[in-house]
């Protein structure tokens, strides 16, 4: 790199150097000068003018160099560093593209073999059908049997003689057969693989994801690239509980070394049930780890059954034994570092043992792909990025600690949903209605684990953990959309008194068991503080601060904020088969790494649609009801009719509370009532976010107190005219409700409605009102009337409230209010009036802010 350098020698040379510098010529720096500049660059790549002058004064060897030349040196140095990083990045991308190209070529070869196989099979079937009519004897049964046997060659289920359980040679034979069958699935055509929707290969994608088509059980396959070495990848994948959230335990009961440097392991694994409506599964498998001649590592696994031979597994009365067909991982080293991974998961979950409505959970290869196959690949990529230092985390905690928090939240929620007897859970009697299940655990230390400090959660009086849980089927509600709403709008379903009770249990301080109120008032807001997220943002770990809204025994507001550690996953609507989950647990403000966690939350699992029709596009505001013309309505009706059964899902709710022995019955009654309240809130939210006009298709009626938009528009307009004698909307007297709604929605003044409660919250606003408040119709329900008015506005409203209730309306003078973002909004005048329903009883209050503008 060309640099200006101080000359050596007498005055003549120095004069020439000065002349050269003035002329803008460049010479080389001496090694001593470069070393001095590099030291400064390592501390400050872009020094200020004063810092450069200070450098010249402090370094005698730089004394005869002008500050301008020093500035040029640093510019060039930064440019060279940038070029070096860019070259390194391009080399990395090139390696990825080369490896991905190799992967795609292999995939193309595999697909060509599959096409050839199908062409041959098609020709064989044609020949059989052509020969059948001319046969002199009835060979139809033989033909069908023969073709059926040929078709099922793709999914062989060989029968083996019973092998000696104590004979390592017999187990090695099973292992070698498992290896051959696994490789035929990973790189061959043993299974008809279909690429999963939305999963496209590329240098930055997770990989090539495919699911099974017409095979026994369910299967998923993934191919991807990671920057870790094969041995490290193998170590991570074998530690299944660290990345497979449904794995309850994995015990290696026997290890047998093999002659080729590998080993055979006999493994017993238990998995959680995804919902309270089904039983958990367990597996008894043989796992074979070995190396191939090309340097690849293979970890393959299959269940040991009477048909395969091998020793019998341990009995488990509360589990249903599932079967793992030949599955595993092929890990191949890449040139220049990193690994190419092939993952195959192929299992039979005995779907016939669950109710028919739940069978799609056990028959969907997409759900298997999301839970196991993609989860494994994502976990490896996450660790690879963490190892390289490319991910920064907040809160001053290491990535491994944050991953442990996520695992503990997920595991604690799974424990609550399943309630295993060996964890100490037992069922309580019901109150006559079987909608909510109550389970108690009087051995919480066993459940929380010895590494967790739970001494602060239970007083000396003795107590335990109580869990209230329920499951329900949802129709036409996208799981991702529902969980995202529950995360962002906690006030729609949570009860602050219950939150305060849960927070008080962390400090083992006395707190009366709250009664669940009919209106879940949320007097404070929630602030989401992000802690970590996965590289594809499919999972978030965050701290939720609930701002001073708890209640004590006298229903007085507590000023102390409360905190929740929250895990949210599956909120991407485009992720096919993904489970959406929101799990949270109360924590202290400065929670330790071993802080006890008592998770509660929601899980929504999609059921495979009965048709493959695309879902209708929707909005969460009134814009979807304002399309002009009957064509839009007809189109929407047909779309909704075709999608009525496309969006079925199972919702599971579980809430955990601590209790003292003498208050167990009171806590159980509170928990049962609270879960029923949450279920009702979720049902209300589900109806709100479901596609519009669905109710008319399936004969649903709007619940009392929640009129549809057209009815509310008519009530608002009619009440305004009744109280003031003036038309609010200039509509034709023969105009229908559609026209009234459109006029109200597009009215230039901000019109909004709020509930008639002690703390009024907004329930509706037109487009101008939403713009003024800087919110949406869904988030509008989190805003109270008191929040948007300033002190003078509240005083005026209080003084005019009696008059408004007596004569039905009141004019309010010009003033200032605040948007949901805290921006001041001025208005010239406001009108408030009572909205009357069909029976002329009070439904809500309406406000109209005229000529408003942001200050």
UniProtKB/TrEMBL annotation:
Entries under CDD domains matching the protein: bZIP, homeodomain, START_ArGLABRA2_like
Domain START: from-to ranges: 164-364
PROSITE patterns: HOMEOBOX_2 (PS50071), START (PS50848)
UniProt subcellular location: Nucleus
Keyword annotations from UniProtKB, A to Z: Coiled coil, DNA-binding, Homeobox, Nucleus, Transcription, Transcription regulation
InterPro entries in the cross-refs: HD, HD-Zip_III, Homeodomain-like_sf, MEKHLA, START-like_dom_sf, START_lipid-bd_dom
Cellular component GO terms held in the UniProt record: nucleus
Keyword Transcription regulation: yes
Region Disordered, residue ranges: 142-166
Origin: domain of life: Eukaryota
DNA-binding region extent: 22-85
Residues annotated as domain Homeobox: 20-84
One Pfam family of this chain: START
GO MF assignments: DNA binding; DNA-binding transcription factor activity; lipid binding
Presence of the UniProt keyword Cell wall biogenesis/degradation in the record: no
Physiological role: Probable transcription factor.
Family (UniProt): Belongs to the HD-ZIP homeobox family. Class III subfamily.
The protein, known as: Homeobox-leucine zipper protein HOX32
The species this protein was found in: Elaeis guineensis var. tenera (Oil palm)
Gene assigned in the entry: LOC105046708
């Amino acid at each position: 790199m060309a640099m200006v350098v101080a000359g050596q020698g007498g005055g003549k040379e120095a004069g020439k150097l000065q002349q050269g510098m003035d002329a803008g010529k460049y010479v080389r720096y001496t090694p001593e000068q470069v070393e001095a500049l590099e030291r400064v660059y390592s501390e400050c790549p872009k020094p200020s003018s004063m810092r450069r002058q200070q450098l010249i004064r402090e370094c005698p060897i730089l004394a005869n160099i002008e500050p301008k030349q020093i500035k040029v040196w640093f510019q060039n140095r930064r440019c060279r560093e940038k070029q070096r990083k860019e070259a390194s990045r391009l080399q990395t991308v090139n390696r990825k593209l080369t490896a991905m190209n190799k992967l795609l070529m292999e995939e193309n070869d595999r697909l060509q073999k599959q096409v050839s196989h199908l062409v041959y099979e098609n020709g064989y079937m044609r020949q059989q059908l052509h020969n059948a009519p001319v046969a002199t004897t009835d060979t139809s049964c033989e033909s069908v049997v023969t073709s059926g046997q040929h078709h099922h060659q793709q999914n062989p289920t060989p029968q083996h003689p019973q092998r000696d359980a104590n004979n390592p040679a017999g187990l090695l034979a099973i292992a070698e057969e498992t290896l051959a069958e696994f490789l035929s699935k990973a790189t061959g055509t043993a299974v008809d693989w279909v690429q999963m929707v939305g999963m496209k290969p590329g240098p930055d994608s997770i990989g090539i994801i495919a699911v099974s088509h017409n095979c026994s059980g369910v299967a998923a396959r993934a191919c991807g690239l990671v920057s870790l070495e094969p041995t490290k990848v193998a170590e991570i994948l074998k530690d299944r509980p660290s990345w497979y959230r449904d794995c309850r335990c994995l015990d290696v009961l026997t290890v047998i070394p093999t002659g080729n440097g590998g080993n055979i392991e006999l493994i017993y694994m238990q998995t959680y049930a995804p919902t309270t409506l089904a039983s958990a599964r367990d597996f008894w498998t043989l796992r074979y780890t070995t190396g191939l001649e090309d340097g690849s590592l293979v970890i393959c696994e299959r269940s040991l059954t009477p048909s395969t031979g091998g020793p019998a597994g341990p009995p488990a009365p509360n589990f249903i034994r599932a079967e793992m067909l030949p599955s595993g991982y092929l890990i191949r080293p890449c040139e220049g570092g990193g690994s190419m991974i092939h993952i195959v998961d192929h299992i039979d979950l005995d779907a016939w043992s669950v109710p028919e409505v739940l069978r799609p959970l056990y028959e969907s290869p997409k759900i298997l792909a999301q839970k196991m196959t993609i989860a494994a690949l994502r976990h490896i990529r996450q660790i690879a990025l963490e190892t390289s230092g490319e991910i920064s985390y907040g809160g001053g905690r290491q990535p491994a600690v944050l991953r442990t928090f996520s695992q503990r939240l997920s595991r604690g929620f799974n424990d609550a949903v399943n309630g295993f007897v060996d964890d100490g859970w037992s069922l309580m009697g019901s109150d006559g209605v079987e909608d909510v299940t109550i389970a108690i655990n009087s051995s919480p230390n066993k459940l929380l684990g010895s590494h967790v400090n739970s001494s602060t959660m239970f007083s000396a009086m003795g107590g335990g953990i109580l869990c209230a849980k329920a499951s329900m089927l949802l129709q036409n509600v996208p799981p991702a959309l529902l969980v995202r709403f529950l995360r962002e709008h906690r006030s729609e379903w949570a009860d602050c008194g219950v939150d305060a009770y849960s927070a008080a249990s962390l400090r083992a301080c006395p707190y009366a068991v709250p009664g669940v109120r009919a209106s879940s008032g949320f007097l404070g807001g929630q602030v989401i503080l992000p802690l970590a997220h996965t590289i594809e943002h499919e999972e978030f770990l965050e701290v939720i601060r609930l701002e001073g809204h708890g209640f004590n025994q006298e229903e007085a507001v507590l000023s102390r904020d409360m905190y929740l550690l929250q895990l949210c996953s599956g909120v991407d609507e485009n992720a096919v088969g993904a489970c959406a989950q929101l799990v949270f647990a109360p924590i202290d403000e400065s929670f330790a790494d071993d802080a006890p966690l008592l998770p509660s939350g929601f899980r929504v699992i999609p059921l495979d649609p009965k048709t493959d029709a695309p879902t209708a596009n929707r909005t969460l505001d009134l814009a979807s009801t304002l399309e002009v013309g009957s064509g839009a309505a007809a189109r929407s009706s047909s779309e909704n009719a075709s999608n009525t059964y496309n969006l079925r899902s199972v919702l599971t709710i579980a809430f955990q509370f601590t209790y003292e022995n003498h208050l167990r019955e009171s806590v159980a009654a509170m928990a049962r009532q609270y879960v029923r309240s949450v279920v009702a809130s979720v049902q209300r939210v589900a109806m709100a976010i479901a596609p519009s006009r669905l109710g008319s298709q399936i004969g649903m009626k709007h619940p009392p107190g929640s009129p549809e938009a057209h009815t509310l528009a008519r009530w608002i307009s009619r009440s305004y005219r009744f109280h003031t004698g003036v038309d609010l909307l200039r509509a034709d007297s023969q105009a229908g409700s559609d026209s009234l709604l459109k006029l109200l929605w597009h009215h230039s003044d901000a019109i909004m409605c709020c509930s008639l409660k002690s703390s009024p919250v907004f329930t509706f606003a037109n487009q101008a009102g939403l713009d003024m408040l800087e919110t949406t119709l869904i988030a509008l329900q989190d805003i109270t009337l008191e929040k948007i008015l300033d002190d003078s506005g509240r005083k005026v409203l209080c003084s005019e409230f009696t008059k408004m209730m007596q004569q039905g309306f009141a004019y309010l003078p010009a003033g200032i209010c605040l948007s949901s973002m805290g921006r001041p909004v001025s208005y010239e005048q406001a009108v408030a009036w009572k909205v009357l329903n069909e029976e002329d009883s009070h439904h809500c209050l309406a406000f109209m802010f005229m000529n408003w503008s942001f200050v």
